[in-house]
TrEMBL record:
Keywords: Kinase, Transferase. Residues 36-257 form the Polyphosphate kinase-2-related domain. Gene3D superfamilies: P-loop containing nucleotide triphosphate hydrolases (3.40.50.300). It comes from Mycolicibacterium phlei DSM 43239 = CCUG 21000. One of its GO terms (biological process) is polyphosphate metabolic process. This is Polyphosphate kinase. The keyword Kinase applies. The keyword Kinase applies. GO terms for molecular function: polyphosphate kinase activity. It comes from the Bacteria.
């Protein structure tokens, strides 16, 4: 059964990033305590569905897969989604990739080169912690390539994603949005806690100073790359317990849409039972 959260966070033409209530919990009326209970039940459901996806490939030859695309400013909770939401499933069936600043080698190729190499195998859930969208976000905001180059990328990304969907991939695109204030609070916590220094990057402050340009770039991503075959989901992320539950629900919905079942045995069960008992 799908949750009201999934339709509540689905991007609709005309939705604006500027108009978002970032402490809201669309589609969920409970408290943080209620959410913890729901989260436990739904994480278990997610794990079960993922096992069926994996089994369907491993023993049933089902080549479909799922790709979770996570985008969001620094400290928007991408890492927490990976740890807590994706962390609830069997790592055997997960292919996780974080996309940072491109290497020399990556820069020598088309921007989708490194993305294609990281696509999940059949039966797996792929997780992109940042993605090809950085090539129209950080790249656009910082003029890393001329406008005539990044302008073409929106259509190119749509065509690329069409190809993925036609090949049997279900895309779950999530944009996590926190307020500038919340980001400041989160980044300060990283500075104040020696066990979080590894997450802090002085460059984050430089990007933070370009907040309005990022808002604009995110709006363009939503307006131009939310398609019927690969829609965006806009998730308010000031409350982490909500954004985690929302992504859990989106993954469950995607997997339930595949109508999965455990593959039947391709051997004679009774004959095997006899052989085993006699052994
Ligand atoms: P983090 O996700 O915090 O480890 O940071 C990764 C950094 O790499 C972010 O500042 C991204 O904006 C940056 N990054 C990711 N993809 C690209 C790209 N295609 N071009 C330039 N910078 C990128
Ligand atoms: Mg960071």
């Amino acid at each position: 059964m799908s949750s009201p959260i999934t339709s509540a966070v689905r991007f609709r033409p005309g939705d604006t990033v500027a108009g978002l209530d970032l402490t809201a919990t669309p589609g969920f009326e409970g408290s943080k305590t209620d959410a913890a209970e729901v989260q436990a039940t739904r994480s278990a459901r997610l794990a079960e569905l993922q096992e069926m996806l994996y089994a369907g490939w491993k023993a049933g030859g089902d080549h479909r897969n799922v790709l979770l695309v996570l985008q969001g400013m620094d400290a928007s909770g991408k890492g927490g989604i990976v740890k807590h939401v994706v962390g609830a499933v069997n790592p055997m069936g997960v292919r996780y990739t974080a996309f940072g600043k491109p290497t020399e080698e990556e820069l020598a190729h088309h921007y989708l080169w490194r993305i294609r190499r990281a696509l999940p195998p059949a039966g797996h859930i792929g997780v992109f912690d940042r993605s090809h969208y950085e090539d129209v976000l950080v790249v656009r905001v910082n003029n890393l390539v001329p406008q005539e180059v990044w302008e073409k990328r929106y259509d190119e990304i749509n065509a690329f994603e069409r190809e993925l969907v036609d090949g049997g991939t279900t895309l779950v695109k999530v944009a996590l949005f926190i307020s500038a204030e919340e980001q400041k609070k989160q980044l300060l916590e990283r500075l104040d806690d020696p066990t979080k220094h590894w997450k802090y990057n002085p460059g984050d402050v430089d990007e933070r100073l370009k907040w309005p340009a990022y808002q604009q770039a995110y709006q363009a991503v939503l307006d131009r790359t939310s398609t019927d075959y690969a829609p965006w989901h806009v998730v308010p992320a000031n409350r982490r317990w909500y954004s985690r539950l929302a992504v859990t629900e989106l993954l469950i919905e995607a997997l339930e849409g595949l109508d999965l079942s455990y593959p039947p045995a391709d051997f004679d069960i009774e004959a095997e039972r006899r052989r085993l008992l006699d052994s």
